[in-house]
Amino acid sequence: MTCFTAFHWFDFEPSLREFRRILKPSGRLALIWNPWDSTDPFTRCYSQLVFKASKRYRTKMAPYSNYPFGYVKLARMGLLRYFHWMPHFTNVRRYSFAHQQTAKLETLIGCARSQSFVPKEGNVWEQLVIDLGNLVESSEATHHLAYRTILFLAQPASREAKPL
Q1: For 14-39, what is each residue's pLDDT tens digit?
Q2: Residue 90, beta-bridge partner list
Q3: 63 has a pLDDT exceeding 80
Q4: Does residue 162 fall inside a structural domain?
């Protein structure tokens, strides 16, 4: 079973319980995210512009916005990220892969438009498009977005085992 860039929207423990239920004992669960790599200067500038626009937009559409459950979910995601904790699963392993995408202005705009937390119209969106154009014009090097793909791979715990 594979979940790409979406598991943080799921109800953490019940979803993992259901994943374990439907997986065969020999099956595996893969949770994958593809965040921007902020160690790359161009990517860092790009992501700062996108996040600046999202802060000006202020949306409630966020996986951690509903108090107090959002904070519990955020804590559980932190336990997964830093300690590889995943109820109902064992042998949780984390892998990381670097890659990049050559990006023209149209690609950068399309990538920004695909973010759920970014406005798609209005003054904030128009300013973001202008800012992205200025970023491309001010950079002399080939433009690319750098990513650090994160993969968590796990196997289902035995059905008799109880999660902590």
Answers
A1: 999 999 999 998 999 999 999 999 99
A2: 155
A3: no
A4: no
Query: Residues near 114 by Cβ (< 8 Å), separated by ≥ 6?
Result: none
Per-residue pLDDT, 145 = 94
Of 129, 138, 141, nearest to 105 (Cα)?
A: 129
Using alpha carbons only, what angle is made at residue 46 by residues 43 and 47, rounded to the nearest 5 degrees?
Answer: 85
Is there a domain that residue 80 lies in?
yes
CATH number at residue 143: 3.40.50.150
Structure tokens at 43: 């990517």
131 located within any domain: yes
Within a domain: 161: no
Q: Are 139 and 133 in contact (CB under 8 A)?
A: no
126 — pLDDT class (breaks 50, 70, 90): very high
* Residue 58 belongs to domain spanning: 2-156
- Count of domains for the chain: 1
Residue with token string 């023209």: 104
CA dihedral 72, 75, 81, 84 (to 10 degrees): -80
